Amino acid sequence: MSKSCKLLNGSLTAVLLALVAVPPAADAGGRVELGTAPSTPVRARLPRPAGVDEQAAQKTILASYRALGELARAGGADLGLQVGDFRTFQAAEMDAVLWLDLVTMPEGRGLDVTRRRHTDRSSGAVGVAYRAAWRDLAAEWVLTGEGQELIGSTAAEVLARAARSDSELAEAIGVTSYEVTVSLSGEERTYRAAFLWLAAPSGRMRFRSVDLITQGVENALTDRASAVPAAPAVDGTRSVSAASGTCYSWTTQHPASPPQVTNANDHISGHHYAQAAFNVQCECTSTCESKCQSAVTSSTCEDTWSSFTVSGCHRQGTTEATQSHTNANGVAGGAECTAGWGCAVKACVGCLCTVSITVSISDAGEVELASDGNVWAKSLEHKVTCAPCSEVAYGGGIENPGPFHRDPEGGGGGTGGGGWSGSYGGGCTWFCTTSWDGSQYSESCTLIC
């Protein structure tokens, strides 16, 4: 019986066939600053199973964290990373080093990193970025049942125990431990993490990232950072203008926070839970284009601190899928888009597993979840169909300014020559003014909430 620990997301393993960068120069403390542009890539070919090539191992680790930083910055997070103090142990040496000297276990503060895949439904363009935020992990993981079992255990002993339920770990040919300093939003933490090297039939090696504080390392080399739109701000206001153009120009926000979902699978006490907040922005342009953009604005996927589990450490994985959509003829119908988010939980010995999870959105806007989480997996979603655009029609005189005396989105109303106000609902009111330039009327409206 053991108290659960927190987890990091990622694929089960990553094949070491990716291009990796030559590491930049280290500072006086042996750490490498990863905020600079990558240097010329080289292909890492690591020998099997004679041992781990330490130089190639360091290149791979540095390239992974550099890629992680680039993906986080593409998602709008100014993530700082320094990596150094590398220590490589071959398979024959792992019975002489304590596991807890190699890896910081999941407690205190950690970085929740969620992979975001954004698709423009109109053009088919796909962007990938990572969303990063601090979160609380376990209070004192080493005081849990499993934590107590690991005290005094060597790396070889922990791997042998974990290999009983994960045979791939029996193929470990070495481990590289290193120090990480991560900073975000004025907060910083220094800890130790490791790459576990696994032999492969091809003669090249695979690795498994064992960074239990910062998520996303295991996927970073296989993802390529690309532009994704910033999440629309949720400011609670709506605005509309018809001063010029064919259609009323307006923008609306549609936030949603589905109820928290909980589950107690594999728990003696406590539970794991999933929660996400969404926003969809709808827009109509003066040229009658209807635009829709979805986003996940926050999320949580974790176990409660008071949890005791049946199978050992629980690791969580998260991912999200968002969309943009433009309907060129917004008068005929508004654009629609969906945001989907997924949470998966996997149990393993010593937190030596990673979680594979993907969320996709079908052409019909349905969210589909796939994961190897052996304890629990759940997806949440928010789908919006925007209101159609409204064409501006001009009346024949000041006493009859036509459709200006109504909410361009179809709600509310009001009267008045040269201006009007009308209730929109939910405590909101339209304030509009009309003007005549000698040939036509125009109107400008603002919704105050």
Name the features.
single chain; 449 residues; mainly beta; 13-stranded mixed β-sheet; 5 helices
3D architecture notes:
The chain is mainly beta. It is 10% helix and 44% strand. It is built from five helices and 26 strands. Strands 7, 8, 12, 13, 14, 16, 17, 19, 20, 23, 24, 25 and 26 form a 13-stranded mixed sheet that branches. It has a six-stranded antiparallel sheet with strand order 2-11-10-9-6-4. The longest helix is centred in the N-terminal third of the chain and has 21 residues, at 54-74. The protein starts with a strand and ends with a strand.
Brief overview:
By secondary structure, the protein is mainly beta. It has helices at 54-74, 99-102, 145-150, 155-163, 217-220; strands at residues 2-3, 14-15, 19-21, 31-33, 41-43, 80-90, 109-120, 126-136, 172-184, 187-199, 205-210, 238-242, 249-256, 261-263, 267-269, 272-284, 290-303, 308-309, 313-327, 336-348, 357-361, 367-371, 376-385, 419-425, 428-436, 441-448.
Estimate percent helicity: under 10%
Uncertain segments are 1-24, 36-49, 236-244, 394-426
Q: Round the Cα radius of gyration to an integer and report it.
A: 27 Å
Count of DSSP-assigned helices: 5
Shape: elongated
| Average residue pLDDT | 77
- State which percent range the strand residues make up: 35-45%
Biggest pleated-sheet summary: 13 strands, mixed
Oligomer: single chain
Judged by helices, strands and strand pairing, the structural class is mainly beta
Q: How far apart, in Å, are the first and last alpha carbons?
A: 53 Å
Count every beta strand, where a strand is a DSSP E run of 2 or more residues. Answer: 26
